[in-house]
Design brief:
single chain; binds adenosine-5'-triphosphate; four-stranded antiparallel β-sheet; 20% strand
Length: 306
């Protein structure tokens, strides 16, 4: 029995390691579509992240040499602060997040976390400190307990439940036919966009990373769900360095710093107030969204009345 137990135990640990490594590689990175191109250097060390200060220094990057994507991007995110990336579609926002996760190596400049160049450390150790709330969360064909626990596979049941409570999905789960044993995903109970986001939030709370990457969904949830989700998201970001790719500017009003990107270059930076005051790119994006919002709000009230 002892002889058998050894390898099985080892396999279990190994399996969990693989699972752990994949947690953050959810849809956001369209992993299945992208080959993994990055190798650790031979004597790569484990990264030590205590504070979570992020630095991009003159970073240049392309997917194909003929088409530069980021040109000389520099910024610093202080530990515990919230930093937002905005800009038109294709500006390079998600690319910045992928680079921080080191899905690609860069072609100029450097990226540092707590002063350590991320190209010199083990990728796995880097990803251990980073949690992701992706645009669209992958659910496994398993029960909801398993799906939330995926944030930290060795979490005890009561920890999973606390995370679900904090993400404000616990009561909803209790309302499912079999509570936490309810099978979700393709062949089970289908969760709404908002519920899936809450699962992602609960997972990230369980993982308790130093750095959180948040890729805001492009498809808007209804306004009330959106507002409730914001409260749960705020919990995930609390006391953590947070990088948000924002599509709705209303979510980043309180960000410590906003970076406006256009065609791979920084065209503006500042706080919401500073950028509104400036009255240029960000301000016009803001006004554009306000107008759209008013139009949508108008339609909603017509529907309600009808
Ligand atoms: P969105 O708001 O639409 O998500 P974004 O600002 O996040 O846009 P990125 O996803 O960073 O933009 O893409 C920046 C540019 O890089 C786009 O022109 C895109 O077509 C290109 N791009 C993204 N991924 C790849 C890839 N794997 N291979 C080649 N080009 C890519």
């Amino acid at each position: 029995i002892i002889q058998l137990y050894g390898p099985l135990n080892w396999l279990g640990t190994y399996y969990r390691m693989i699972q752990q490594a994949f947690i953050d590689m959810e849809n956001m990175f369209d992993l299945l579509d992208e080959e993994q191109e990055v190798l650790d250097i031979p004597d790569a060390k484990e990264i030590m992240i205590k504070h979570g200060e992020i630095e991009f220094n003159d970073v240049s990057f392309y997917y194909e040499p003929a088409k530069p994507i980021l040109r000389g991007i520099s910024f610093k995110v202080h530990a515990g602060q919230t930093f937002a990336l905005v800009g038109h579609s294709g500006a390079g926002k998600s690319t910045i997040i992928r680079l921080l996760f080191r899905f690609y190596d860069i072609h100029g400049g450097n990226i540092k976390i707590d002063g350590q160049d991320i190209s010199l450390v083990k990728q796995e150790s880097l990803r251990h400190f980073i949690g992701v709330v992706p645009q669209d969360t992958v659910l496994f064909n398993s029960n909801i307990m398993y799906n939330v626990r995926y944030g930290r596979v060795d979490a005890a049941d009561n920890e999973v439940i606390s995370a679900a409570e904090a993400a404000d999905i616990h009561r909803r789960i209790l309302g499912f036919p079999k509570g936490y044993d309810t099978v979700v995903g393709e062949r089970g109970l289908k969760l709404s966009g908002g519920e899936k986001q809450r699962v992602a939030i609960a997972r990230t709370l369980l993982k308790a990373p130093t750095i959180v990457l948040l890729d805001e969904a492009t498809s808007a949830l209804d306004t009330r769900t959106e507002r409730n989700i914001q409260t749960s998201l705020a919990k995930v970001c609390e006391n953590r360095t947070t990088l948000i790719v924002a599509h709705r500017l209303s979510t980043i009003i309180h960000a410590h710093q906003i970076l406006v990107l256009d065609e791979g270059e920084v065209i503006e930076r500042g706080t919401h107030e500073e950028l509104l005051e400036k009255g240029e790119h960000y301000a016009s994006m803001w006004n554009e969204q306000l107008t759209k919002h008013e139009e949508v709000a108008g339609t909603e009230s017509i529907v309600e009345e009808g």
